[in-house]
Amino acid sequence: MPAPATIPADPKLWRKAFIDLRPSVVPCPGFTLQSWGGTHEACVEFLDRWADEAASLGWTTLDLFGVHPEAGTIRPDFCGAMVLSAERVSAITDKHMRFGNMTFYRDKPGRPNGAVPLWLFGR
Q: Tens of pLDDT along 47-61?
């Protein structure tokens, strides 16, 4: 797999990489088994329904699936939209993503560099 900084915004790659993550195995710190199960389900639904549109709107792998390389989701400032909650996406634009009553803004100032895709955590 390419280095995190060069991972393309490719829905086929997202699906292929995510398929190895099981809902019964927590992939990084910050998730409980219950919260990961809901997040996993929401991510699968996103990949089936929204991934192609997200890529065409310019969302990157890290915008969606990024986590801190050591702390996982414990550092939400590193996290992508899809790993922050188990809510399902209800709308998407080039600037934000809606999850029920929550909105994730992709261009939020001050987001640190150095995230890795969830499926590369610990590797």
A: 999 999 999 999 999
Structure tokens at 33: 């088994």
pLDDT tens readout for residues 8-67: 789 999 999 999 999 999 999 999 999 999 999 999 999 999 999 999 999 999 999 999
Residues 63, 81 contacting (CB under 8 angstroms): yes
**Measured between alpha carbons, how far is residue 91 from residues 50, 95, 96, 97 in Å?**
9, 11, 8, 6
CA distances from 87 to 5, 46, 70 (A): 27, 10, 24
Q: Indicate the SS3 state at residue 91.
A: strand
Angle at 66 between CA 2 and CA 84, to 5 degrees: 160
Residues 6+ away with beta carbon under 8 Å from 70: none
